[in-house]
Amino acid sequence: MELTARTIFGILLLLAGGGGIICGLLHEITWWKRRGWHLTTGVVTGHACHKKDGKVLYPIIQYETEMGAKTFISKYGGSKPPEFGSDVKVAHHPEMIAEEHFTVSNRIIFSFLFFSVGLVLTLAGTLLLWHGFQAK
């Protein structure tokens, strides 16, 4: 019975770890596709609240392009977003299809966090299963 519970837990760790690795890789691929986007400076003009809890704030950013001013709400928010009126980096598609708030945390930390947690969970699940099979 202990071996069965160990096996199930090991498989769950492997699945969760694999999911974390996939999320990290997909996030990195998304930003890799944005490498040809233009970087410019925008200004935080306000904040939008998350609809469910009202605690997560998403910066509303305005920036200038050759075609005039453009405003958008960042997909990345937090409990302490950039202050009103502060300058932020904006990555935008050259053909104005999309834009995003560009920070180190948006760009690298999410990918690294998902990938590293996924790797640790995968390693833990593998070790748990390996030791379970060695006990047979």
Protein model, in words:
With 136 residues, this protein is α+β, with helices and mostly antiparallel strands. The protein contains two helices and five strands. It has helices spanning 2-33, 104-134, and strands at 38-49, 57-65, 68-73, 87-92, 99-101. The chain has a five-stranded antiparallel beta sheet, with no helix packed on it. Helix 1 packs antiparallel against helix 2 (104-134). It is elongated.
In summary, what is this structure?
The chain is an alpha+beta fold and about 140 residues long. Helices cover about 45% and strands about 25% of the residues.
List strands and helices in order, with pairings:
Elements (H helix, E strand, L loop, with lengths): L1 H32 L4 E12 L7 E9 L2 E6 L13 E6 L6 E3 L2 H31 L2
Antiparallel strand pairs: 1-2, 1-4, 2-3, 4-5
Helix pairs in contact: 1-2
Bin the strand percentage: 25-35%
Shape: elongated
Number of separate helices: 2
Q: What structural category arises from helix and sheet content?
A: alpha+beta
User: Radius of gyration, Cα only, in angstroms?
Assistant: 21 Å
Report the mean per-residue pLDDT as an integer: 84
Low-confidence stretches: none
Helix content: 40-55%
Amino- and carboxy-terminal Cα gap = 13 Å
Main sheet properties: 5 strands, antiparallel
If strands are numbered along the chain, what order do they take across the biggest sheet?
A: 3-2-1-4-5
Order of helices and strands: HEEEEEH
Number of strands: 5
